[in-house]
């Protein structure tokens, strides 16, 4: 392992399994959680990321 690389484990599947029993919803929510985790790590503007996700998933009210 390189010393300049840090690994951060985010339990995306575990976070999405219980609240979203339907498989398709879990996959979508896992992608949304992934986008949130990456945006936090890169210190992106959360309002912009939120707006983009709202636009992408606006038809799926369950998310």
- Tell me roughly what share of residues is in helical segments: 55-70%
Q: Quick check: average pLDDT?
A: 86
Cα(first) to Cα(last) distance is 37 Å
**Total E-strand runs:** 0
Rg result: 14 Å
Strand content: under 5%
Shape: flat
What ranges have pLDDT less than 50 throughout 5 or more consecutive residues?
none
Give the biggest sheet.
none
Q: Estimate nothing, just give the exact number of structural domains.
A: 1
* Element string (H = helix, E = strand): HHH
Put simply, the count of helices is 3
What class would the helix/strand composition place it in? mainly alpha
How does this model look, in words?
The chain is mostly helical and 63 residues long. The protein has one domain (12-56). Helices cover 57% and strands 0% of the residues. It has helices at 12-17, 23-41, 46-56. α2 (23-41) packs antiparallel against α3. The longest helix has 19 residues, at 23-41. The chain is flat, with a radius of gyration of 14 Å. The mean pLDDT is 86.
Question: Which characteristics define this entry?
Answer:
63 residues, mainly alpha, 3 helices, flat
Summarize the structure.
The chain has one domain. It contains three helices and no strands. The protein is 57% helix and 0% strand.
């Amino acid at each position: 392992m390189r010393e300049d690389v840090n690994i951060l484990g985010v339990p995306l599947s575990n976070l999405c399994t219980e609240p979203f029993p339907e498989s398709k919803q879990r996959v979508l929510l896992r992608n949304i959680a992934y986008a949130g985790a990456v945006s936090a790590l890169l210190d992106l503007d959360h309002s912009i990321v939120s707006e983009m996700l709202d636009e992408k998933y606006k038809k799926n009210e369950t998310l």
